[in-house]
């Protein structure tokens, strides 16, 4: 049971990472802004008291390879995610358990990555939905374990 939960959680995280990669590769100029901010920090450290103007022309073309890299990360994360999801299905007692665990992990990971990468915040209704999903996950895990114990006790009789 534990390997199935681990693989399902990892599959959910990889799905969220793939979604974030898609948003970075196909979204607005977020990568260009990150490039300009990183270049500013780097030139400030290199200047060490010298007066240098900020030249952001490198970011005019550098965001294109970064977008392509994020697109490659999108396909890689999706391929690995499906591999881990298949392993979760194989190691779980039910496909519902693996699916719900992957979904819950995806929601939580999406919230975390969205906050860290994009500075997103979520409404209270979104958090209520997450709590209901996690509660359902706990009920599913508890009821499956209890049902398997009842089946074992019936076989003993």
UniProtKB/TrEMBL annotation:
The chain crosses the membrane at residues 64-86, 98-118, 124-140. Keywords: Membrane, Signal, Transmembrane, Transmembrane helix. Coiled coil: none annotated. It comes from the Eukaryota. InterPro entries: EmrE-like, TMEM42. Residues 1-22 form the signal peptide. This is Transmembrane protein 42. It comes from Triplophysa tibetana. The lineage of its organism: Eukaryota, Metazoa, Chordata, Craniata, Vertebrata.
């Amino acid at each position: 049971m534990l390997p199935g939960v681990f693989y399902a959680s990892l599959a959910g995280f990889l799905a969220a990472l793939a979604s974030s990669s898609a948003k970075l590769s196909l979204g607005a100029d977020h990568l260009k802004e990150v490039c300009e901010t990183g270049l500013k920090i780097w030139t400030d450290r290199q200047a060490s008291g010298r007066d240098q103007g900020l030249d952001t022309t490198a970011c005019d073309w550098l965001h294109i390879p970064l977008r392509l890299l994020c697109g490659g990360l999108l396909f890689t994360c999706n391929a690995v995610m499906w591999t881990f999801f298949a392993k979760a299905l194989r190691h779980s007692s039910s496909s519902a358990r693996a699916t719900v665990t992957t979904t819950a992990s995806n929601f939580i990971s999406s919230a975390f990555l969205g906050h860290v990468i994009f500075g997103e915040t979520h409404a209270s209704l979104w958090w209520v939905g997450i709590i209901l999903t996690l509660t359902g996950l706990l009920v599913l895990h508890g009821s499956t374990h209890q049902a398997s114990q009842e089946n074992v006790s019936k076989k003993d009789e």
